[in-house]
Amino acid sequence: MVTNRCKILLIEDNPADVRLTVEAFRENHFDETFYTVKDGVEAIMFLRKQGAYSDVPVPDLILLDLNLPKKNGREVLAEIKHDPELKRIPVVVLTTSNADEDIERSYDLHANCYITKPVDLDDFIYIAKTIKEFWFRIAILPSEAGECYLNI
Q1: In the chain, what are the domains?
Q2: What value does the mean pLDDT take over residues 81-105?
Q3: Which residues contact 118 (CB under 8 A, 6 or more apart)?
Q4: Measured between alpha carbons, how far is 72 from 33 in angstroms, rounded to an integer?
Q5: What is the percent of the chain where pLDDT is above 70?
Q6: What is the pLDDT of residues 11-65, one digit of tens each?
Q7: How far from 23 is each of 31, 84, 150, CA to CA, in Å?
Q8: CA–CA separation, 57 and 60 (whole Å)
């Protein structure tokens, strides 16, 4: 029997965007598995279980903003995808930029998906539903993530 809840790490520095993202996932019955960090340095510490993050779980999916303080999203993405312990975690870039150079650079750094953040809550709810459906119902995730379940 599977007892692992799916876990999402949201790497986002804007409190309004954190609230919007969490609300959109909550509307899709996905609030019990959210972890948030507010900058790139904190994100890497979380993922490597350093400092205050020594007991956190490995996320099944990462939602990554590109515009972060201390260490930007591209730097975080590069570190994740070059780390043998982290590189298999799917990373969805979820950012305000729709610039071709940001999209291309993110995929060059091995992002698994690139989504431009909508400003409308209904649109964000739809995107959250789509992320949930694809990454946790359709896609087959590696190892432990493949054993998680959704609270429906």
Answers
A1: 4-141 (3.40.50.2300)
A2: 94
A3: 124, 127
A4: 24
A5: 89
A6: 999 999 998 888 888 887 765 678 999 999 999 999 999 999 999 989 999 999 9
A7: 8, 32, 16
A8: 9
